């Protein structure tokens, strides 16, 4: 509800940001690629995105690559018995007819070995590799530390 | 008629079972960190960003919002510290009654990466603390929270940290008041704090 309200408020002022572009590959559409400011280049950046699968076949995100980082990997934040850990995710399922969010507190890309610190307003491409659909590249927008997501006019999430 | 009574009985039993189940879950989840756990006074002695030794005793008179984390953490820690920053901004004049603390559970690496720049990026009020391994463990034990190192080839330097991701509130007399579980909205933390002033 909070997000809906936030999205509604923001949509009034939203301009068409990079993160709001939708790119498609096969039955998959990928949008809302965003990241957060990093404090220096020595700490990993983060990558969040929305993926939806309009087809009849299950797919999976199996990897990401970007010129912004030497070692980008997929991870999942898991909170179990009151302890948070962040195991490496070998693949993230994108079931037929469903959508998957890489978002704070869940699945996310971890961008290790950043070539430079990420600053607000920067953007960089990330190529997503899917098991079946193949590869697709999205533009990722670097938002502030406090951002909860891009302010897209379509309020897609 | 008998059937109805049976039905009613089953409903009562089902509801009772649900309550018992929920109660048990609550007790398990809240072990050591329950909102209503018996009063205790967590203590710590840890070096701050400049290497000065800080102790829990010197913060008496203020509410402490304490988060145990590590600066190499890309998801949980920035999200929580951003919420803390939002709370501090929204407190306005009451902000002086609250001291937010970031306690490093990965002190050696965090000192190397720079603790002051990290906490300042979120909010100037947040004080970063990074003690020795023994001091950090003692602080965690005192707060009754868990952290541990997990070897992970797919993490920076080959390891990551698992930790209790809550935000812990300590009262002006040093007593544990409650925890805010990971993901508690800043507005909720703010309104709770305001009820305690």
Question: Secondary structure elements and their pairing?
Answer:
The complex is a heterodimer of chains A (157) and B (197).
Chain A: H1 2-13, E1 23-25, E2 28-36, E3 45-53, E4 59-65, E5 69-76, E6 78-80, E7 83-85, E8 92-94, E9 99-102, E10 107-114, E11 123-130, E12 134-143
Chain B: H1 2-29, E1 45-47, E2 53-55, E3 63-69, H2 76-91, E4 98-104, H3 107-113, H4 115-122, E5 127-129, H5 133-143, E6 147-151, E7 159-163, E8 167-170, E9 176-180, H6 186-196
Parallel strand pairs in B: 3-4, 4-5
Antiparallel strand pairs in B: 1-2, 3-8, 6-7, 8-9
Assigned CATH architecture of chain A = Sandwich
How many domains of chain A? The number is 1
Number of helices of chain A: 1
What proportion of the residues of chain B is helical, as a percent range?
Answer: 40-55%
Which structural class should the secondary elements of chain B be placed in? alpha/beta
Query: How would you write the strand order of the largest sheet of chain B?
Result: 5-4-3-8-9
**Low-pLDDT windows of residues of chain B:** 27-34
Strand proportion of chain B, as a percent range, falls in 15-25%
**Inertia-based shape of chain B:** globular
Rg of chain A from C-alpha positions? 15 Å
Question: What distance separates the N and C termini of chain B?
Answer: 56 Å
Quaternary organization: heterodimer
> Which parts of chain A are unreliable, with pLDDT below 50 for 5 consecutive residues or more?
5-16
Number of domains of chain B: 2
From the alpha-carbon coordinates, what is the Rg of chain B to the nearest angstrom? 20 Å
Mean pLDDT of chain A: 89
Mean pLDDT of chain B, rounded to whole units? 88
CATH class of chain A equals Mainly Beta
């Amino acid at each position: 509800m909070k997000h809906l309200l936030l999205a509604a408020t923001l949509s009034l002022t939203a301009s068409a940001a990079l993160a709001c572009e939708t790119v498609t590959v096969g039955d998959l559409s990928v949008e809302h690629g965003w990241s957060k400011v990093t404090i220096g280049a020595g700490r990993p950046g983060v990558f969040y995105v929305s993926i939806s699968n309009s087809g009849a076949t299950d797919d999976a995100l199996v990897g990401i690559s970007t010129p912004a980082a030497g070692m980008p990997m997929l991870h999942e934040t898991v909170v179990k018995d009151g302890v948070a850990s962040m195991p490496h995710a070998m693949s993230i399922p994108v079931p037929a007819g469903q959508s998957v969010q890489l978002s704070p507190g869940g699945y996310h890309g971890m961008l290790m070995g950043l070539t430079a610190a990420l600053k607000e307003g920067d953007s960089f491409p990330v190529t997503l590799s899917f098991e079946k659909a193949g590869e697709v590249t999205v533009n990722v927008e670097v938002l502030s530390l406090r951002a909860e997501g891009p302010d897209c006019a379509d309020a897609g999430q | 008629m008998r059937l109805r009574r049976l039905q009613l009985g089953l409903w009562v039993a089902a509801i009772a079972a649900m309550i018992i189940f929920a109660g048990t879950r609550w007790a398990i989840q809240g072990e050591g960190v329950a909102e209503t756990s018996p009063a205790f006074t967590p203590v710590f002695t840890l070096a701050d960003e400049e290497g000065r030794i800080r102790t829990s005793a010197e913060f008496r008179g203020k509410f402490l919002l304490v988060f145990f984390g590590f600066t190499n953490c890309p998801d949980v820690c920035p999200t929580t510290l951003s919420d803390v920053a939002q709370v501090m901004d929204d407190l306005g004049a009451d902000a002086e009654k609250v001291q937010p603390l970031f306690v490093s559970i990965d002190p050696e690496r965090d000192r190397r990466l720079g603790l002051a720049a990290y906490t300042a990026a979120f909010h100037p009020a947040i004080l970063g603390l990074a003690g020795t391994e023994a001091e950090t463990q003692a602080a965690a034990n005192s707060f009754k929270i868990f952290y541990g190192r997990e070897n992970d080839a797919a993490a920076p330097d080959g390891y990551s940290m698992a930790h209790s991701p809550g935000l812990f509130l300590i009262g002006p007399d040093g007593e544990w008041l409650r925890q805010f579980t990971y993901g508690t909205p800043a507005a909720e933390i703010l309104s709770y704090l305001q009820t305690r002033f």
